[in-house]
Amino acid sequence: MRGADSVPRPTPTGKTPSFPHARRKTWLRTDIESCMLQRRCKLRGRMKKEQVLNCQFSFWYPRFKNQTIRSIVLPLPQNVKDYLLDDGTLVVSGSEDLPTCSQEDDDGNSDEAEDVQWSDDENTTTLMAPEFPEFALKVQEAISALGGSVFPKLNWSAPRDAYWIAMNSSLKCQCISDIFLLFKSSDFITRDFTQPFIHCKDDSPDPSLQYVLVLRKWCELIPGAEFRCFVKENKLIGISQRDYTQYYEHISKQKEEICRCIQEFFKKHIQYKFFDEDFVVDVYRDSMGRVWIIDFNPFGEVTDSLLFTWEEMISGNNLKDEQSEGAAMEQDCPSFRCTNSSLTVQPSPYLSYRLPKDFVDLSTGEDVHKLIDLLKLKRNQQDDEES
C-alpha cells in the first residue's frame, strides 16, 4: 500500500503533476507559503512595549475625557509604592480616616474600651502602618471632588481580584484606607508594579514609568451593559460580552442593535484617534442607548479575549462565519459574541483569588512540588497512626 505522503496533491492550477520532482516542488512552495502566512500572523500579534505604554490611563484620558467617566489622576509617591509592594503583615495605612467605634450612652458617659490581649508574650510589639499625610490629603480632596465615592486603579489595572476583602465586597472606596486595603490584597496591582511588559515581544529596555493613582467617580454600572471591543488595523473586528460568565437575555435579543450602536460610536469617537492601530477598548451602553468608554487595553494575550481566542483575533479566522445575514451584508461589520444560554453560565473567574495560592495550585496541579509535599505529609500521618 502507498503511504499518505505518496498521494499526489493538486497544484494551485487544479492539475496533478505527472512527475515526482514537480510534485515535491509544489508541496515545498505550498509549505513555504503556509509558513510565511503563519509568520506574518504571529508578527502582527507581537505586542510591543509602546502599545502597553499607550494604554496607560493617564495617556488616553485627556484625549477621550468627554466620552468617559470623570476621573482624577494623582502621581504616586515612591514611598507609597514601596508600602504597597511591602510583602509583610497587612497593616492598612490611613486608619485615622475611619470613624471611631466608641459611642456615648444615654447618660452621656462613654464606656471604657475593653483591652483585648491577643498574645501572652510580653515582648509582642504592635505593628504600625506608615502614614502619608500629604498624599492622604490629596486623595481625600479628590474623593470629595468626585462625589465622595470612587473606583480606584493604577496605570492599567483595577484591584478586581480583591473585591472580596473589602467590608462592602465592592471596589467602592470612600477613603485612602479602603484603597490601600484593596491594592495590597490584589495580584493585579502587584503585576502592574512588577511585570507590566511581561507579554511584550520586543527586546528593547523597559521604559521608565511614572505610576499614578487613578480615582474614577463611582457609578453603578450594570455588568450586562459592558462590552469588550477588539480593534485591528483601526477596524472594529470583534465585540464580546464583558461579563461572559452570566446569561443576559436582553443582549441576545438586542445584539444587532447593540452592535450597531457600538460601531457608530467607534467610528465617530475612537477610530483613527487612538495612539495605535491595534488595541482593545471596553465600552458601556447605558439605558438610553448611549455608549461610553471604560478603558483601553493592549491588543495581545495580556488582555483577556473573553468569548474569542487570540488566535482568531490575530488570524481573522472564524470571525465572519457566525454573523447574522443582515450583519454579513454590511461591510466591515464586527463579529459579535455573547452567552446565549443560561446553561453555559460559569462561576466568576475572580473566585479563585479568595483562596490561598497554595490551595489553588494544588487543585489545578500547577505546582507539582506542593502536591508531592502534600502526599508526603499524608503518608507520614498514616505512618504515625499505624505506629
UniProtKB/TrEMBL annotation:
Pfam families: D123. GO terms for cellular component: cytoplasm. GO terms for biological process: cell division. It comes from the Eukaryota. Residues 1-21, 95-120 are annotated as: Disordered. The keyword Cell cycle applies. Keywords: Cell cycle, Cell division. Residues 103-120 have a biased composition (Acidic residues). ATP-dependent protein-folding chaperone for the eIF2 complex. Binds to the gamma subunit of the eIF2 complex which allows the subunit to assemble with the alpha and beta subunits. Belongs to the CDC123 family. This is Translation initiation factor eIF2 assembly protein.
